[in-house]
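In this notation, each integer encodes one residue's backbone shape. One such record reads:

___
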Amino acid sequence: MLLLTRFSLLPLLGLFSVGAVIAAELEKAPEGSFTIVAIPDTQGYFGLGTKRSPASNDPVTNPVFEKHVRWIRDNLEAQRIVFVTHVGDIVDRNNEAEWTVARRCLDVLHGIVPYSLTVGNHDMTARGDSSLFQQYFGAERYRDFPWYGGDFESGRPSPAVSGNNANSFQLFHAEGLDFIHISLECNAPDDVLAWANDLLARYEGRRALITTHMDLGVLEHPKSDDGFIHDPKGRMRWTKCHGERGNTAVQMWDELYRKHANLAFVFSGDQSRCTALRLDQAGDHGNQVHSLLSDYTSSGPLRLYRFIPSENQVRVITYDTTQRELTGTTEYVEDWESHQFTIPYLMRSE
């Protein structure tokens, strides 16, 4: 039986004790470790035409997104950050004003650290047209970087659906370990999953990570707002994009995730009222696939995955770049162990 688990807290580099919130900068990541950052949904736009300040005539801004990228830039060395992924819903209303702000934010990271972007349901139309995302973050923007592996090419007359960096992969190396990371759009259709299957087989010697927008959350589409908070949770069985072509998270598990021995982590967002979930599930080869949801309502928390090969573990640190403190409780998930915990992951054998 599969269980969504709340794991007991292990000390994270002596940074805190259970129940404490430390309003301070994180200590430096230890020698021999490295960090992968997952930026949660960044839908918190303010100004003219936005949901959060509909009466405003001010220019569009996104203060939390700006703080995230500046903190990452300023802490690249101290936190030994080697890769950054965005779990999707980069924008809220999928208009040029918000995409312009998103581009300005991500320019802070461009050229200084490998990063990926995942297309969420707010970043495309319901039928899967992500042409505005492609206008601001198309494949041509990344082709000259050695870490950029490439993107899915659909073969359709227009790349507006699924093409031109809507699905992409990256290759990077850290502390003697080789990785492939794949970004898959929300409810990726079968042809995209076939492309991802080929990639994971081609790079079977690399450790694999996937970011997609919808994975963990409320199992069935809630019938009320209260259901988004209290209904049973797990790998999702409903879709938002691509119509009948769109795959649920369960279908993506069956058609892709479970098949590859090198896949270790699946990062996702989308479910702000679930906020933080974890599901560990064995793939067909006996490997544990760790699925991790982080969607902090477009507020201050950022997710850090600190890989420590010498200890064969990944320390999951949720850090608020606005308040400059560790996140121990949120509106919907109050227990500390959902935000700060440790995952066993074999990287060094004796």
